[in-house]
Amino acid sequence: MEKIKKDHRPLILVTNDDGVQAKGLKALVEAVRPFGDVVVIAPDSGMSGMSHAITVTRPLYLTKVLEEEGLTIFKSSGTPSDCVKLALHEVLGDKPDYLVSGINHGTNSSISMHYSGTVAGAKEGTFNAIPSIAFSLLDHSADADFSHAVNYVRQVFELVLEHGMAEGVCYNVNMPKGEIKGLRVCRQAKGNWIEGFEKRYEPGTGKPYYWMTGSYVNLDTDAEDTDEWTLDHGYAALVPFTIDPTCMETVSRLKSLGVEDRLPVSN
């Protein structure tokens, strides 16, 4: 495969986890296309909830589905992280200037960001020192209205074009359904999923199987500086997060306790 090399225009890599046919992906391409040449590599089917999974036990397939001036689209049998890896190693002759992932059908706020293939696609870009942003809309409908979201994607992207991003930092942007009052920079809300499994039976065989169910519980209900509060009040939420999960406060605490000196060292 002949690799795509950037010319004088910025090269923007686009991926998602809802699949190459998703309306949100088309909206994201529409939003960023005025800023540069766009290459899309997206899963050939839905990969929601795949987080940062990569494919190591089966082959990966990559197919070009569209090529026109300033836009090339591929579909892959892999996860969002696989798509980014394929882009960097097999498709692009140069590292892209920017990576955007989404627009996801459904929120990736609070703890949900850790399960999200959309966020993972952006994280994979951040791993490779590419300014990367994940975008999600609080509407799970396959025919969701992205018209308001496109405007805010452009504004966030222009912000990054103007000011850049710190290395090792990724942006997770969630937008409410419908009109958006504005943008707030905030933190990830504390919350968790109360999960259960519905037991069902295969027709004919009677073999049991399980379907996950659950509901989100917000543990930061009164905190106005969180993404959940921001979305509930009609604003888009931008949460910057780092890819280094080290808790430096605990590192310092353990060192002050003399943990390194207490534990025996094997010879």
UniProtKB/TrEMBL annotation:
<keyword id="KW-0547">Nucleotide-binding</keyword>
<dbReference type="GO" id="GO:0008253">
    <property type="term" value="F:5'-nucleotidase activity"/>
</dbReference>
<dbReference type="GO" id="GO:0005737">
    <property type="term" value="C:cytoplasm"/>
</dbReference>
<dbReference type="GO" id="GO:0000166">
    <property type="term" value="F:nucleotide binding"/>
</dbReference>
<feature type="binding site">
    <location>
        <position position="104"/>
    </location>
    <ligand>
        <name>a divalent metal cation</name>
    </ligand>
</feature>
<dbReference type="InterPro" id="IPR036523">
    <property type="entry name" value="SurE-like_sf"/>
</dbReference>
<keyword id="KW-0479">Metal-binding</keyword>
<dbReference type="InterPro" id="IPR030048">
    <property type="entry name" value="SurE"/>
</dbReference>
<keyword id="KW-0963">Cytoplasm</keyword>
<comment type="function">
    <text>Nucleotidase that shows phosphatase activity on nucleoside 5'-monophosphates.</text>
</comment>
<feature type="binding site">
    <location>
        <position position="17"/>
    </location>
    <ligand>
        <name>a divalent metal cation</name>
    </ligand>
</feature>
<protein>
    <recommendedName>
        <fullName>5'-nucleotidase SurE</fullName>
        <ecNumber>3.1.3.5</ecNumber>
    </recommendedName>
</protein>
<dbReference type="InterPro" id="IPR002828">
    <property type="entry name" value="SurE-like_Pase/nucleotidase"/>
</dbReference>
<feature type="binding site">
    <location>
        <position position="48"/>
    </location>
    <ligand>
        <name>a divalent metal cation</name>
    </ligand>
</feature>
<dbReference type="GO" id="GO:0004309">
    <property type="term" value="F:exopolyphosphatase activity"/>
</dbReference>
<dbReference type="GO" id="GO:0008254">
    <property type="term" value="F:3'-nucleotidase activity"/>
</dbReference>
<feature type="domain" description="Survival protein SurE-like phosphatase/nucleotidase">
    <location>
        <begin position="12"/>
        <end position="193"/>
    </location>
</feature>
<dbReference type="Pfam" id="PF01975">
    <property type="entry name" value="SurE"/>
</dbReference>
<dbReference type="GO" id="GO:0046872">
    <property type="term" value="F:metal ion binding"/>
</dbReference>
<comment type="similarity">
    <text>Belongs to the SurE nucleotidase family.</text>
</comment>
<keyword id="KW-0378">Hydrolase</keyword>
<feature type="binding site">
    <location>
        <position position="18"/>
    </location>
    <ligand>
        <name>a divalent metal cation</name>
    </ligand>
</feature>
